[in-house]
Structures are given as structure tokens and as C-alpha cells.
Amino acid sequence: MREMIEIRTHSALHVLKGATRKVLGAKWTASTYVNGPHGRLTVQFERKPTEEEINRIFVEAQNKINEGLPFITEKLSREEAEKKYGDEIYDLFPVPPEVKELYIVIIPEWNINACNKQHVSNTKEIGEIKLDHWRYRNAKKLLEISFNVI
């Protein structure tokens, strides 16, 4: 049971990242965290967002979840993946150089990431996500967004 909720929570990170990119233009993920229904996405961002922007991120994310978009996974050599997708597939935390094959997780026209975790088959399976809290760490230029999957 706990495993399924963590799959939903992890999948929600991908949707939330797409919404954060759409609303704020934040490209780089600094870290992610999942524990049961609780998740946290930390992205690099140059300023403190407004409450309105944070709320828009969650509206956009929930709309994508409600669309029931597929999670598509491609297994490619690292070289092929980088040629096809460039640095879009990466985060700030590096994939070790010895990793020669990548799983590329795609939510069409929303999010793309190298990720070797398990995901739901479509966004509707995530359910609902609710903002828990957020904070902006000005010294590090990091935005932390904590949420819960319901």
C-alpha cells in the first residue's frame, strides 16, 4: 500500500515540475523528496515567487492530472538520449558517468526527465495534490514546494 502511494507521489513531482516550469520558467531541479503521500520539489529560481504564482502552479498541475495524460518511458543509450533531448532530461544533481542507459520519462508536451523510478500509467492515477507549504531560500536561490497527494 505504501509503495503505491509513493509511486503516485513521485509521479506528482513530474507534473509539478512541468507546472513550475510553465508558470515560473524554472528549468533546473535541485532536489526531490518523497515519503508516503508527502513530496517536495526544490528548483533553482532567481527570486521569491508570489502567492499567486504558487497557487497557479497548483492549478496548472491539477489540470494536467485531470487530463489523464500518459507517462511514457523510453529506454535509450545515454548518447542517444542526449542527442535527442539535450540537457532537458537532466537536473542539477548529476547522473553518474558510469550510467550508459537512461530511462526517459515523458508527459507529452509537459515534462521530460531522466528517471529510473516507477510511475503511474497516466496522470489521473495521481489523484489530487495539495500545497502543504513553500519557502524561498534567497541565499541559495532555491524554491522548495512541499505538497501532499490525496
Automatic annotation (TrEMBL):
Alphabetical keyword list: Metal-binding, Zinc
One Gene Ontology term of the molecular function aspect: aminoacyl-tRNA deacylase activity
Listed Pfam families: tRNA_SAD
Domain Threonyl/alanyl tRNA synthetase SAD stretches: 104-131
Cofactor requirement: Zn(2+)
Single biological process term from Gene Ontology: tRNA aminoacylation
UniProt keyword Oxidoreductase present: no
Entry keyword Zinc: yes
InterPro entries for this protein: Alanyl-tRNA_Editing_Enzymes, Thr/Ala-tRNA-synth_IIc_edit, tRNA_SAD
Protein name: Alanyl-tRNA synthetase-like protein
Protein's organism: Acidianus hospitalis (strain W1)
